[in-house]
Structures are given as C-alpha cells and as structure tokens.
Amino acid sequence: MRYAERRERLRATATERELDAVLVTNLLNVRYLTGFTGSNGALLLRTDGTDVFGTDGRYTTQAGTQVPDIELLVDRATVTALAREAVGRGAGRIGYESHHLTVDGLRALESVLADAAAGGTVAELTSVQRAVEALRVVKDDDEVDALRRACAVADAALAELAAEGALRPGRTELQVGRELDARMLAMGAEAPSFETIVATGANSAVPHHRPDSTELRAGDFLKLDFGATVDGYHSDMTRTLVLGEAADWQREVYELVAAAQAAGRAALGVGADVVAVDAAARDVIAAAGHGGHFPHGLGHGVGLEIHEAPGIGQLGAGTLAAGMAVTVEPGVYLPGHGGVRIEDTLIVTDDEPELLTLTSKELLVL
Amino acid sequence: MRYAERRERLRATATERELDAVLVTNLLNVRYLTGFTGSNGALLLRTDGTDVFGTDGRYTTQAGTQVPDIELLVDRATVTALAREAVGRGAGRIGYESHHLTVDGLRALESVLADAAAGGTVAELTSVQRAVEALRVVKDDDEVDALRRACAVADAALAELAAEGALRPGRTELQVGRELDARMLAMGAEAPSFETIVATGANSAVPHHRPDSTELRAGDFLKLDFGATVDGYHSDMTRTLVLGEAADWQREVYELVAAAQAAGRAALGVGADVVAVDAAARDVIAAAGHGGHFPHGLGHGVGLEIHEAPGIGQLGAGTLAAGMAVTVEPGVYLPGHGGVRIEDTLIVTDDEPELLTLTSKELLVL
User: Which residues on chain A place their C-beta less than 8 Å from a C-beta of chain B?
Assistant: First the structure.
C-alpha cells in the first residue's frame, strides 16, 4: 500500500515549512496516511522520519495489524500523549490541524507545552492548515481503484433493483431507498455514501429531498442520488427515470440536463479552471432559459469524504489536475412539477476523463 | 415535539451563567434542540427568547419543515453569520462550545467580534463547556420512545436472521454482518448504530474484532455486537451464541458473564454511583478468577451518539438518574480460545430499570 509514500509527501511539506513535527488528528487524514480505520487514532509525523502512531487500548491489536510499520503509543489521552512525545524528542516547531482540532484540544496541547517550558524545553504550535487535504486532492492508483469498486457497487445495485421491478408505482420513496441501501451492503459496500435520496413526482424538484412515504406513480419522474462506500472511498451518482410514459416536457428537461452534463464532462481536463467547467454546463441550461432552475454547483471532489476539494462551481477557485476525482451533476428543477439531475463520478486524466459510474444516461422509462 | 422544552432548559442554564446568548454548533446538539437533521445548521439561543436558526441554501426548505418555530437565517458562512446576528442584537456575553468548535472556527468568531469592537460594540466569547450534552444525559419520553423502537429493530433483525438459518457453519463473519445490517435497514433503521461486530471462534476473544472472511464453524462461539439507528437514536446490543454443541468451558464462561451482567443490571438505580455499578458486575467476574479477562468498562450512555455520558466504569464519575439510557455489557475474553459478551440497553427508572433489548440471554445453541 501507499501509506509510506503519502507520509513522505507530507514530510516534504513539513520540511519545507520548517516544522519538526506534524500532529495529524483528523481521523480521515490519519487513515489516509496510515491505513488505520478505528475511531480513535492520531499520527505524530516527524521530519527526521521517526513517526509515532497513537491510539487507545481498544485498538492495540488493530493498530498492530493495520499500522505495523510505525512505532505505537497506546494512551487514552492520545493526542496530548503524542504532543508530550514530540516535545520529549526535541521538536521545537509542531504543526497541528487548526481546521480540525477543537478549542479544548488546542488548550490541552498548550498545557503540554507549558509543562515542557517549565522544565526548560521550549516548543511552539503552528497550524499546518489543510496540508493533508491538499495531498488528498490528487488520488493515487489505490484510491482510484477503491473509487472504481465503490462506483461499480452502486451501478450494480441500481441495475438489480430495476431488473427486479422494485421501481414501480405504489412503492414508496422510503422503501426504494432502503432496498437500494440493502443491495449496496449485500454487494460489499461498508455503508451508503450518504443518506440515499429518492424523490418522485413534485419531490424531484427539491434538490436534496429526504425520502418519505410518497408513493411512486406512473408518469412521474423518479430521481435517485446515492452511492456506496468501499474501503472508505465514496461513490456518488444520480439518475432520473420516468415511470411509464414520458411526457414531452419531461423529455425536454431530461435532454437539456443530459446535454449540460455532457458539456460539463467534456470540459474536465488537466488545467481547466473549475469556474469554467461549471460554466460549460451552466451555459447550456441558461441558454434554454432555465438558468434560474439550476441553483447549485456543478460538482465536487470525492474520496474519503463524500464532499471534498475541489469544488466545481461559480464560487470555486483553482484548476484541475490529473488524478482528481470529481462529480459532474447539473440539474433543472421546476418547483411543483419535477426535476432532473444526472450525476457521474469521474477521474481527471491527461486524456479523456475516466468515467467510473457506468449506468446508462439514456432516459430510462420503466 | 419537545424541542421548545429542551431549548427552555438550555436557556435556564444560560441565564444562570449570565450569558446573553449561546451559539450551538455541535450538529447533534442542534438536532436535539431544534429537530433539524441536515448536515449544516447552528442555533443562536438567546436568553431573551428570540432564537435564530442558521443553515445554508441547500436546507432552506428542510429548515422550514423541521424548524418552523424559530427565525431562519440562510448563509453559507452559517456560524459567523449567527455570531454577527448575536452581536448586532446586542449580546455582550456569548457562549460557544469549545469542545466542538475548531480553532479556525473560534478565530472566525473572534474576527466578527473584533469588527464589532471597531464599530463600538463590545462582546465577549466564553465556553459553555458541554452544557447541551449535560441536558442530553437524561432522556425525555420522545427519546425513550425512539430508543425503544431502535432496540426493537435490532431484536427483530437478529430473530429473523436466526430463524432463517443464516447463522450456520460455512458462512463468513462479513456475510453475517452484512445481512444483519441489511435486515435492520429493511425494518426501518436509518443506519446501523456502528460497524457491526461479528466475531467467531478465536476472534470472539477480541473485544472489538472487525468482521472478516473467517468462516463460522460448529462448536465455536459467535459474538454479535450491533445496533440500529432510528430517528437518530442508537440501540446497542451484544449476544454470544454457540453453533452446535456447547463445550463445558463455553457454558462456564457464558454463565459467568450472564451472572455478571445480571448483577450489573440489578445495580442500575437512581443515585447509584457509576463506579459501584461497574464493580457489581466486575466483582462477579473477578471472584471467578477472570478479572484480567474483562479489560473494558461495564457500559456507557446511548442516545443521539452511540457512546455518550454517563460512562459506567472504574474511571467513571457521578451517579445515575431516572431517564438515563445506558448499556450493561460485561465480557470475558480468553485469548486464542474465545470470548463472551452480553449487552443490553436499558433506561434507569425510579423502579426497576426498563430493558429495551428483549432478545433472550439464555445461551442460544444453534
């Protein structure tokens, strides 16, 4: 696995910033750098290469299996114990994650440093900002592989649900959502990526509708936004179907969103500005007079979190790089009538983006 | 629902501490006080009774439905916008949750206050510590009802799995875990309470074993630790079975743990010291010479979190009160051989504790 490689990249950042050590407390960042999946763990990464992984007694065995290559420190007060270790080994400048550590957590670290100072050892704390998240934006091969498998589970779960006739009039949004979740779990997902969205009829016009007891009806849109988590990585996909015969207005809205989504996908490339990628899809919708019916950004990064950098939207900033994993998900929502969203997860490459969500985007009429 | 009642209890705390307002940012605390279930929301509770609920544009509709009784503020930078609102309305002393707010979050609030000070309005920030968590320890009727339903789902899922013969030699821990999860979802759980533990044979001696491809075998222990989340509330239950014939040593360990568990349940009462409750069960195990094989606390509170106050263990502090929801879960783990844990979720009452997990605790031999 690539954990050691990832730690070397963070070590380079730390060295560049003249830090002696970095205390990584964001559990997802700890997982990214070590492979540890328990609920309490932290990493003391030192620029001299002697790292320490901390956890509590519940995870001694698990840490031995998952993090065999890093010195282990077992302590209930994991983070302060690692800080004491850092200071004891002579770290003068210690980086910490100010976007994750709580105010109480910082006070506890400051108290460790105050004790050390009383003993004549001076150390200081400085925020590393989102240094690990900055590394996580570009996925390595292991991560792309996990995302590919997560997307495959979601594709297969939807295919099975459709094939078995579970998407039919009379069933409720909640029933459909639960069956989709159950199928993803049966197919090897650890969990759904987020609370599955099932929205039918007028509910489909609500971008983030929570499934309720509304029944599916013939002639209505059925919007499914869902994903599977595999090895910690999240897939994200939206498909909108019609139950029975599609009306002209439904085909029209669907084709418009599909065209916008294709334009968004085509705009994904190395060096592309995220605002321009958003615009590529948004312009298609605006040109058809529906600019006001697309109230959210075009997409977002996915990985160990369902929403992570880069944000692809009008308020975004930055450009795309090879290896970024992103969604492209334009929508048109007509309040009181219905809405369509089409969403894929893709990997940016030097060539065409790699499509990970393979379910057809033809208007599916069930 | 009881959200307004809960807010009045927090308002009383705030008034007592001479605060003008409390900025609640821990999303679970926000849910507890308002009913909001989205992924971004915060509450500005003011001692004069004019509260403001903040969220971003994705949740405008949902906030209207779930939080109809509180003034709504929609802003991407939700927490700083609420702080600006507090200062603008003349709050001089503003409480915040230092155990939850990040260092960067506090810096942002401090910057709002600095801007206000530059304009001549002076306000200060002070931690309220875990004021809302302190209220959450005692459950009201709505919460007990949700916990009861969550426990019923877990009971029913296990009963169905056993009745259908899914717990048989040759199946893997992972398969059993996934089926248990899928059944809980199908029965109305929003999610499993935590990553379901399925541990068989020697794995059952690992207190928090992660299910893997180990196959169930005749004559082995099978330990299942799992729960369902319903309306945000978590059930927690462990049962240990034997597949096929139980050996004498298995019956012996099982009866010991069952006796310790009964002693722990019997010790649950209003005013009972949590250390004494732990000791009631631990003493039974120690008297049999297995003190060293019970390396964790006896139990913990459950509610909107799977682990919350009160902790019932040797390092705990405090006494029990009517309405607390707790687990009682002693275990004896014999490394390399196998282990037994038996766990219930119960409500402390003025009378006998109410048992919410109703699955039999007789040694089930399948």
Answer: 37, 57-59, 61-62, 96, 98-107, 127, 178-179, 181-182, 185-186, 188, 190-192, 195, 206-208, 210, 295-296
Higher local confidence (pLDDT), B273 or A210: B273
**In chain B, what residues touch A179 (CB-CB under 8 Å)?**
186
- This prediction has a pTM of 0.88
ipTM field: 0.85
Distances (CA, A) of B6 to A78, B34, B143, B229, B236: 34, 9, 12, 21, 25
The strands making up A344-347's β-sheet, listed across from edge to edge, are: A308-312, A299-301, A325-328, A344-347, A354-355
Quick one: pLDDT at residue B1? Answer: 65
The answer to whether A102 contacts B107, with C-beta atoms less than 8 Å apart, is: no
CB pairs under 8 A between A and B: 75
Smallest Cα distance from A351 to chain B, Å: 34
Low-confidence ranges of chain A (pLDDT < 70): 1
Radius of gyration of chain A (CA): 23
**Domains in chain B, ordered, with CATH?**
2-136 (3.40.350.10), 141-355 (3.90.230.10)
Give dist(CA A77, CA B10) in Å, integer.
Answer: 29
Mean pLDDT of all residues in B131-152: 98
The whole-number pLDDT of residue A7 equals 98
Q: Residue A366: its pLDDT value, please?
A: 76
